């Protein structure tokens, strides 16, 4: 029989965790409950974050957005600032799981699961999101690419919680995009995904470009050499093919039940073609 605790705020959460140091955290449960059921994880005590008020809000000060870790994917999808300013994150939430999964699963759970296929991760990499981690002794800010260092591996210290995701809101002239390929159009884990952040000059030439691929390596992958190829160029089929050629040599995909490594390499290049203007 498992014990499930429901703290109402962060102070209560620390006190319950200190009394039950072996406890695990549960957000929406869409990853954790699967692992508990298959006995990949065993926990006697669960601390449910559902009612912890400090983890719930989405706020903005005009320059940045602060997304509480317990924000579920449906709330991300419905948030007007996310929709209008963070297109790639909005697109990722739209294709994540199914309506029940989007209502249960949270951005914090997606990040802390640290799956290379996590849909919010490539957008958060190109948006250069920072994560605020809190513990009984204080808080620290960690860039997302330093937080995740392998499949299922994060920089979370014992008794540390992801409080919120902090993102600088892109200025006008920045375009972002996310696309994933799965085995079907809904309720599919990505076989390969691509997020892109591009600064475009009025003449259409690219300033800063950031590209992040999911599901083609142990973590989300970015390649500065590929991004540099775009600098100062106008988007064309030719330049996207050059980027794709280089990126497909650099990714390190595996073959698994969803797809072969060679197919993933091909998708790595082909997803770039979607960046061609209509
Ligand atoms: C049918 C199905 C379809 C799915 N489809 C997709 C999909 O298309 N794309 C996709 O990316 N994912 C998918 N998932 C996976 C899952 O829904 C997401 O990863 C989801 O965002 C996980 O969030 P959660 O709140 O449910 O996490 P939980 O399962 O509650 O937690 C996951 C892990 O993160 C830890 N954790 C959670 N919150 C915090 C926090 N604030 N601080 C510290 N640690 C924390 C937990 O302790 C646990 O180890 C799917 C899952 C299922 C069951």
Walk me through what this model shows.
There is one protein chain. The chain has 278 residues and is an alpha+beta fold. The protein has three domains: 46 residues, Uridine Diphospho-n-acetylenolpyruvylglucosamine Reductase, domain 2, CATH 3.30.43; 116 residues, Uridine Diphospho-n-acetylenolpyruvylglucosamine Reductase, domain 3 (2-Layer Sandwich), CATH 3.30.465.10; 102 residues, CO dehydrogenase flavoprotein, C-terminal domain (Enolase-like, domain 1), CATH 3.30.390. The chain contains twelve helices and 13 strands. The chain has a five-stranded antiparallel sheet. Strand 4 and strand 5 form a beta hairpin. The radius of gyration is 19 Å and the shape is globular. The site of flavin-adenine dinucleotide has 30 residues, from strand 2, helix 2, helix 6, helix 7 and strand 10.
């Amino acid at each position: 029989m498992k014990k499930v605790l429901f703290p109402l705020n962060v102070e209560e959460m620390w006190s319950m965790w200190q009394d039950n140091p072996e406890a695990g955290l549960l957000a929406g449960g869409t990853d954790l409950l699967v692992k508990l059921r298959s006995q990949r994880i065993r926990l006697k005590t669960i601390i449910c974050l559902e009612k912890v008020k400090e983890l719930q809000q989405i706020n903005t000060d005009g320059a940045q957005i602060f997304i509480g870790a317990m924000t579920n994917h449906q709330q991300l999808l419905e948030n007007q600032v996310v929709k209008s300013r963070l297109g790639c994150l909005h697109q990722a939430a739209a294709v994540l799981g199914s309506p029940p999964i989007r209502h249960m699963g949270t951005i914090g759970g997606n990040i802390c699961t640290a799956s290379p296929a996590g849909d919010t991760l490539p957008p958060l990499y190109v948006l250069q999101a920072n994560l605020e981690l809190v513990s009984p002794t204080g808080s620290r800010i960690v860039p997302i690419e330093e937080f995740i260092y392998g499949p299922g591996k994060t920089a979370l210290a014992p008794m540390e919680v992801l409080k919120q995701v902090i993102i600088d809101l892109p200025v006008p002239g920045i375009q972002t995009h996310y696309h994933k390929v799965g085995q079907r159009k809904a309720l599919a884990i990505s076989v390969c995904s691509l997020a892109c952040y591009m600064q475009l000059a009025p003449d259409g030439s690219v300033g800063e470009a950031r590209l992040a691929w999911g599901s083609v390596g142990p973590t989300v992958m970015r390649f500065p050499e590929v991004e540099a190829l775009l600098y100062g160029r106008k988007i064309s089929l030719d330049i996207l093919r050059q980027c794709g050629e280089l990126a497909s040599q650099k990714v390190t995909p595996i073959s698994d039940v969803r797809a072969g490594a060679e197919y993933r390499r091909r998708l790595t290049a082909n997803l770039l073609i979607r960046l061609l203007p209509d």
